[in-house]
Every structure is written in structure tokens, then in C-alpha cells.
Amino acid sequence: MSQLVVVGFTNVEDARTAMKRLRGLEHAGRISFEDTAIVERTEDGQTHVRNEASGTTEKGAAVGAVLGGLLIFALPVVGIAIGAAVGAAFGALLDRGVSGKFVDDVKETLQPGRSALFLVVKDADADAVIPALRDYEGDVIQTTLDEEAEEALRQALK
Fold first, then answer.
1. pTM to 2 decimal places
2. Which of 96, 103, 132, 137 is the most buried (most CB within 10 A)?
């Protein structure tokens, strides 16, 4: 079962750099994500939301591209493009990731100069993930982790 983890950072850049570090762990097979999003509120109060493609959307786009190329063989480039778009849309419909409403709620409460990282984690090696977040200062906003794992995350973010 996937776990939701939302962390608020005291610096607007920290969500991006933490996500890069976590993507490195993902490539090493130490964590896998269902969905991720980053919210930043600049000092002037502007908010920016970056939703990253989830695995479901990416797989849908790839399958759609292949099917589109096969179905519209007279114009394969057009077929691939149409198939990828349809596949991505289908994958997004199947996606059970981060709720847009929840992202908006956090976005409204985020103070200027801060950022938040939304993670829907399919599987993770806590022995790798917790140390990867120790360089950052922040707060756990929301989580579905068990109490022990949540407390370890809170301690890492001090």
C-alpha cells in the first residue's frame, strides 16, 4: 500500500533539492514513487506548483505511443503523438496520486519563502531515505506513515 508524505521546508529551494536527492535513491532502487509534487511560495507571495509525471502516467504514455504507431501506420509520427497523448490521459485517469485539492489547501497555508514536497511512496528503504533528508529543515505536514517512521522523519528534519 502506498504512503503519503508531505513535508514543508523552511527554504523555497529545499523541496527541489530534496526531490533531486530522492530521485537519485529512486534510480538506485531504494525508493519508488506513485506520484510527486512540489509547491513553492516565493517571498513575494507567488505560488508555483510542479506536478511530476507519475509512473502510471508515464506508462500510459509509452503504451499509447506504441499503440498509436501501430494503429496509424500511414502517418506513424502523428500516430505516435496521438497515442502518447491518449495514453498519458488514460494513465492520469488511473492515477491515484496526490489530490489537486489537497495541494491547493497546502499551497494556501504555505508561508512566503517556504516550499512543500508531496510524495506518494510505493516502496522505500527507510535506512536510505531518512539520512537523505537530514540536511534539510522542515516540518511533517501530513503523513500516513506509522508512528515510528513519522517520528524518524520528524527528527531528520530538525
1. 0.72
2. 103
Of 81, 32, 37, the closest CA to residue 55 belongs to: 32
Q: Which are the contacts of 80, defined by CB distance < 8 A and separation ≥ 6? A: 65, 68, 69
Beta strands in 42-135 (DSSP E): 47-52, 114-124
| CATH code that applies to domain 3-54+97-156 | 3.40.1520
Per-residue pLDDT tens over the stretch 66-115? 444 544 444 445 444 544 454 444 444 444 566 778 888 888 889 999 99
Containing 34, the helix (H) or strand (E) segment is strand 31-41
CB-CB contact of 34 with 142 (8 Å): no
Cα four-point dihedral sign 50, 51, 52, 53: negative
Cα dihedral angle (148, 157, 16, 12), rounded to 10 degrees?
140
- Give the CA distances from residue 134 to residues 152, 153, 155, in Å, rounded to whole numbers and listed in that order: 10, 9, 8
Q: Residues spanned by CATH 3.40.1520 within the chain? A: 3-54+97-156
Cα–Cα distance for residue pair 39/78, rounded to 1 Å:
34
